[in-house]
Structures are given as C-alpha cells and as structure tokens.
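FW: tagging you since you asked about this chain on Friday. Here's the raw sequence from the shared folder, copied in full. Didn't touch anything.
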Amino acid sequence: MKSENFETIAIRTQTERSLHKEHSSPIYLTSSYKFEDAEEMRALFANEKEGNVYSRYSNPNTSEFIDKMCLLEGAEDGFATATGMAAIFTTFGAFLKNGDHLVSSRSVFGSTHQLLTNVFSNWGVTFDYADLDKPQDWEALIKPNTKMIFVETPSNPGIDIIDLEFLGGLAKKHNLLLVVDNCFATPYLQQPIKYGAHISIHSATKYIDGQGRVLGGIILGTKELIAEVVGFARHSGPALSPFNAWILSKSLETLAIRMDRHCENALKVAEYLEKHPKIKLVKYPFLPSHPQYEIAKKQMKQGGGIVTIVVQGGIDAARKFMDGLKMFSISANLADTRSIATHPATSTHSKLTEEQRNEVGIEQGSIRLSIGLEHINDILADIEQALA
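HL: got it, structure written out here
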C-alpha cells in the first residue's frame, strides 16, 4: 500500500526482506559484497548495473535510510555521511572550486563558520555573510562568480528565519545552487525543496536520531546533483556506518510523534519565559513576538524544539542559571529526548569573535535550550528553580 502520509512513509519504507522474512530490517555489517562473476563486477564498477560494491559507496542500511529521507523531504536521491559536518563539507567540496564565491547566512553553526573561514578560504573560495532578517541585502552580495547560497533556517542558536520561497526565487533568477541546512526543523516540520532549494542537509545526529546515541548526516537533492556529491564522497570517504544508518532509519519511525511533543513542550517553555522578569529575550519561531513569526507560520508546520533565551545579568547570570539546573543536562548536543542547556558563547560558537557573535545575536547571557520529552511540569519546575 502506498501512502502520502509522513508517519506511514517513515515506518513502512524498508529494504527488501531476505529469505529469513524478518519483520525489522537487519544490520548489514559488511565492508564488501560478493559478485556472481567477473562481468557483474565490471558492470557494477562501470555503473551499468545497480547494486552494492563497497560499503563506503553504499550499503542496504544506508540505502534504506536515504530512501526514507528522500520520500519525507521530497528529494530524488541522497547520500548519507558519518556526521552532519561531513554532509556540509562534502556539499561544499563537491560544488565549490578555486575562484568560486558563496553567499551564506551569517547565522551558521560554529564549525560551518570555521570551514568557510579557515578551510575553503585557503582553497580559493570566497564568501560573504548576509543577515537572515535583512533579505533586501542578499541580492547585492551576488557576484559573477557566485556559485551557491547556503542558509540555516531556523538558525543555530539565534532561531532566525528566512523566507525560503524568496531564496528559491533569488537562486533561480541568478542560476545559483540553494543549499539549506534543515537540521532544526526536520522534514516533518519543513521541506525546503518545496520552496526552491536544490539541496537539503541534515545533521542526523540531532532530531533524526533524537536520543543522543549516534552520529550521522545526509545530503538530499536531485539525482543529477547527488551524482556530483557521490563522485566527491566516494574518494573522500565520509560514509555513514551501517550500524548508525540502521539506528537512524529506525529512529525515523518515531520522528513525527517525537517532534509533536518537542514542539508542544518548547512552545509552553517559550510562553512561560517570555513573561519571566529575569529573562531579557526569548526567541522561538511560533511566538508572535518573533520577528519572522509570519514566515515561520508559512513554511513550518510547528516551531521546533529549540528555545533561545537571554538571561538578565550577562554571563554571570547565565552561568548561575545553568549551574542551578538539576534535571536539564549541560551539553553541547541538542535534539535529545532529554532537555539540554548550552551556553553558545563559550562552547559551540566560542571560536567566533565577540563581534561576530553579537552580529548573530549571541550575547554573553544567551542560552540555547533544547526542550526534551520530559513532562512539561518538570521542565518548567527545573527552569523556575534555576532562575530563583
């Protein structure tokens, strides 16, 4: 039975059963594969026949994970990587060459910033940052050698939003590749390809896994574009392990129900903190006070599980709050079943200068809250006692 419903696709898309007729997909822990004869080996290596050659290229577990994500994102093909940053590096590496220019949102993950400033800049790739809240400035940054637009929306950790439909039109007008990091939204809440994105990227370590267990990433797009990604990845080797692919594919079966609870809890936390006298600022896409609230409502199903706050009193107050938390974990990860607090200025975004952090709204009092699946009363109680 075919279905267009997210939950059914995520649960029922499965690799072909073996002769054992297993109900749940097995883990294919094999590095290589056997060929029937020399001709089949030649045909597979020549891409004249589809099949598995080597697990750095493909594996039944990674193929199942990719197939599910393609259906959920509305993509034609994909490639699974060992981490989310491997997905971003592989995408940049596959499409950017010496002399190319990139326009990126200023609000990007710290390691993405490091790639642009310390790696690809050494390889002759230049870039300009644009602000998510100033779409009128984006077109002026496009140059004759601009090849790609890269954006996180919602951004990490500022939770800024940009109109994907606007970016899709801009990319089409200038014949540019639009790449969207869709990690915070997941395919359940947002499908960038529907709005004109050519490639959607995920750190599957986050909500796709959702339980803080394994690392993974994925790149999704057209068959033509993914063929270029695969060409680069086969030789650079950022492949996802079969075991992690199996975990991530199984995790997709509960993504919808988990995201519903993450979003429900996060909205309640955001609404509570917005009225708290010790909180200077709350950023959450589905709060009417969010500057891009209307855009978020247009392109996202719900607001996601991340709430970013600024505590009154700067870094000392932020540290006091974090040290006062009893149930929340202090961790650099996010999107776990367990609620997590992170101080971006001294961890995930510590390699940025203070000026760069201020430009994307990361103050010394900024704290990123990844709201988990615990009972909302316990989440709010922990926050309240830590702020006391």
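FW: The chain has two domains: 6-251, 255-387.
HL: agreed, and The chain has 14 helices and twelve strands.
FW: great, closing this out.
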